[in-house]
Amino acid sequence: MEMNIKKVLTPTPGRGLVIAGPCSAETEGQVMQCAKDLAKLNQVDLFRSGIWKPRTRPGSFEGVGKEGLQWLKRVKEETGLRTTTEVAKASHVYDCLKAGIDVLWLGARTTVNPFSVQEVADALSGTDIPVLIKNPINPDLGLWQGAVERIYKAGITRIGLIHRGFSYHGKTSYRNVPRWQMAIEMKRKFPDLQMFVDNSHICGRRDTLQEVAQEALNLNYDGLMTEVHPRPDEAWSDAAQQITPEVFGEMLQNLRLRKPTADEVEMADLIELRRQIDEVDSDLIGMLGKRMQLADSIGEFKAARNIAVLQSDRWEAIMAEAAKAGAKHGLSEEFMKSYLRAVHQESIDHQDAIVNR
Ligand SMILES: O=C(O)C(=O)C[C@]1(C(=O)O)C=C[C@@H](O)C=C1
């Protein structure tokens, strides 16, 4: 789909874009205090706060509702900070437009549902308010892409992406695993869309916020969305991941913005290193091709003798040996596992084609 996308926020040279504010607007006092403290940092581009909170189970704090929009209006009047909040229904959009909210965002639980996205898109039609779109809860790039397309088709041209990580059933130190490759793929599909990292939802805790924000800047994200609360421990939602404006200010100080690419002088050295990488890649592909030819021969052997393609004991042995060899060369266990799984599947596919002939 041909798109003419514009920036949601205009960057200040030399620093990344910053969206910050409490997870939820709780009281007028809490919102105003947070906004005033953040405004003092002089680095915040947009003040965020949840007014309607989609909670997993009923009974948790579900947001103050419409009343909170007036507090955001006051934030803008008294601090000059532009404001943003989450919308999930047509009525939310109308209320926000009436209250003069500057930017809207679609949450992960909305992006996941095309009916909801379409309802919001229809309500947006005829307006030109910028919209940020969080990734869906599950790692389905199509849903994220679909949400962008629905909002764009409604006539919105200032659209951005928020990477908040994905639900994961296994053991992990993240609240929502980042799966950076999904965001990278989204950037590849939509190079003009600004990309923000929601480090609060990826981490779910305070001590890793900085590390994840830096990782995003290393990957050339445009900025971050972080949850900041004047008294994080007392927050009515997501207390564990919120930090004070002061700690947030320190975090911003410590973040290093990266240049998008090398300048002309640096480029010469980079070109030589890239040439060497191309050579190694070409060798690796040649070796993989050779490996698959051997798998084909084993496939012929098995076809002639009616032997199963999968040989679990042999594969276990290969995995164990390769993990050790990989470690010696500085390759992580995680990388070795996914590399070997891909090789094994390709080998099985090759042999399947032969034994099924
Ligand atoms: O050794 C075999 O029997 C093979 O088929 C080769 C191979 C491999 O690619 O290394 C592929 C499938 C088996 O599960 C185990 C190993």
UniProtKB/TrEMBL annotation:
Any GO molecular function: transferase activity
Cross-referenced SUPFAM superfamilies: Aldolase (SSF51569), Chorismate mutase II (SSF48600)
Gene3D superfamilies in alphabetical order: Aldolase class I, Chorismate mutase
InterPro entries, per the entry: Aldolase_TIM, Chorismate_II_sf, Class-I_DAHP_synthase, CM_dom_sf, CM_II_prokaryot, DAHP1/KDSA
Main EC class the enzyme belongs to: isomerase
UniProt cross-references to SMART domains, sorted A to Z: CM_2
Superkingdom to which the source organism belongs: Bacteria
GO BP terms: chorismate metabolic process
Keyword Transferase set for record: yes
Short name of any one Pfam family annotated for the protein: CM_2
EC number: 5.4.99.5
Protein name: chorismate mutase
Species per Swiss-Prot/TrEMBL record: Neolewinella aurantiaca
